[in-house]
Write a structure and sequence with these properties.
The protein is mostly helical. Helices cover about 80% and strands about 0% of the residues. The N and C termini lie far apart (about 65 Å). Keywords: Membrane, Transmembrane, Transmembrane helix.
């Protein structure tokens, strides 16, 4: 019986220690920054992956159905612009991976600072300046992703018009509608690259998988850009709250330092007076 009771006490103590450890670990996680980081990575990955494949599909459609060829040399044409956009996508993927890590590390730092507020942890001005700088960057990147979202909506709108024409081929058979690349600025004014509704190229383009897949990839890229915008808003709220917490923690730390200093001075004054009375008595 004694061994059984001792075993129960040990198991309860072990369970209590594991529970306290888990609660401490869960409480120290910066959940707001963690959720925003996951959302940012998902949005950036969706935008970069789908955007890259959608641009490749656009190149295939231009070459196969509009018979657009790449200009020789270093001439700036639509294919060169698409290559530049792909390199921008590579830069966005790498840059925001690093930026997400920095924001997540700042969240862990601030959570630890608030948790150890009444301990030996010292809130420095460097930490507050770093949080303010990251908040400025988050606001700047929020504006950047707003522009990226607006820019991504343009090919979605154009492909939606083409996709709608293909879905309603029976209603546009009598009409003479054409898709002219000069209207979109893809070719120069002197070049005539267009596909009309009654032509064989139009029906081949509508029956192919490139148009449908490219359109839906651009839609997914637009959704990824929107998710990145929401993630930036989450980061802004988390960073603003962290900066306010750090500012209050710094004020509290100064108050504690002044209070302890005054108590030490009062203690020294009391000790000095006690010694003077003792000397006077002796």
């Amino acid at each position: 019986m004694r061994k059984h009771g001792r075993h129960q006490l040990e198991s309860r103590s072990h369970y209590r220690c594991c529970k306290e450890c888990c609660e401490r670990c869960v409480g120290s996680l910066p959940w707001a920054s963690l959720i925003a980081t996951i959302l940012l990575y998902m949005g950036v990955a969706l935008f970069c992956g789908c955007g890259h494949e959608a641009l490749s599909g656009t190149v295939t459609i231009l070459q196969n159905y509009f018979e657009v060829i790449r200009a020789p040399g270093d001439t700036l044409d639509v294919f060169t612009i698409i290559d530049i956009l792909k390199y921008i996508i590579y830069g966005l993927a790498a840059g925001f991976f690093v930026f997400g890590v920095l924001l997540l590390v700042e969240g862990f730092f601030t959570t630890g600072a608030i948790r150890d507020l009444y301990g030996e942890f010292k809130i420095t001005a460097c930490g507050r300046c770093l949080t303010a700088f990251l908040m400025f960057l988050a606001y700047l990147f929020f504006l950047v992703w707003l522009g990226v979202t607006a820019f991504t909506s343009l090919p979605v709108f154009m492909y939606f018009n083409v996709w709608s024409m293909c879905q309603n081929t029976s209603s546009v058979e009598g009409a003479n509608l054409c898709l002219d690349l000069r209207q979109f600025g893809a070719v120069t004014i002197n070049e005539e690259r267009k596909v009309c509704t009654g032509s064989e190229k139009f029906f081949k383009m509508c029956e192919s998988n490139e148009l449908d897949l490219t359109f839906h990839l651009f839609v997914c890229a637009l959704a990824g850009a929107g998710a990145a915008v929401i993630a930036m808003v989450h980061f802004l709220m988390a960073l603003a709250a962290n900066w306010g917490y750090l500012k209050d923690a710094s004020r509290m730390q100064k108050y504690e330092d002044i209070k302890s200093k005054e108590e030490q001075e009062l203690h020294d004054i009391h000790s000095t007076r006690s010694k003077e009375r003792l000397n006077a008595y002796t």
